[in-house]
Amino acid sequence: MVTILYSAGKKVLGFSKVIGKQGKFSIADNWGEYLFYLLLALGFFISTSSGSAFISYIIIFLCGMMGGRLWFTMKKNLRVAWAMILTGFLVGFVLGSFYGDKKVIIILYVVGIGLSYFLHNRGLIKTTEY
């Protein structure tokens, strides 16, 4: 698991404790880390199932667009955990991509996030919450 640093009882870098107050393992305190690992595995499996570099590029760009929407909806609450979750998917996808250039994959993901955030911020794309 991730090593957690505490400074006088306050969280450093926004990570949560691994062991809860009662000395028990708490899933609710560690949701960011679990989602990071889940999306890392999901990104790995999605990238290994793509059959060509072109398909990998399309998938990572669309996933970046979804990440930009998440970034926009959580912009007031954006903490290290959400950035870590988005990075987890990218790391898994890059590790599992056999086709295509890794730098192009990273650039397309970041461009997808930036473009989606920009379009949502300008009101050109509107999403509804359920």
Please describe the topology of this protein.
Blueprint: E1 6-7, E2 10-11, H1 31-49, H2 53-73, H3 80-96, H4 102-122
Helix pairs in contact: 1-3, 2-4
Which key features would you list for this structure?
single chain, mainly alpha, two-stranded antiparallel sheet
**If helices are DSSP runs of H or I spanning 4 or more residues, what is the number of helices?**
4
Mean pLDDT: 80
The percent of residues in helical segments reads 55-70%
**How is the main sheet built?**
2 strands, antiparallel
Determine the strand fraction and express it as a percent band: under 5%
> Which secondary-structure class do the elements indicate?
mainly alpha
Low-confidence parts lasting 5 or more residues at pLDDT below 50?
1-16
Terminal-residue CA separation: 33 Å
Strand numbers in spatial order across the main sheet: 1-2
- Number of DSSP strands? 2
Would you write up a description of this structure?
With 130 residues, the protein is mostly helical. The chain has one domain (31-122). It is built from 4 helices and 2 strands; from the N terminus they run E-E-H-H-H-H. Strands 1-2 form a two-stranded antiparallel sheet. 26% of the residues are buried. Residues 1-16 have low confidence and may be disordered.
Summarize the structure.
The protein is mainly alpha-helical.
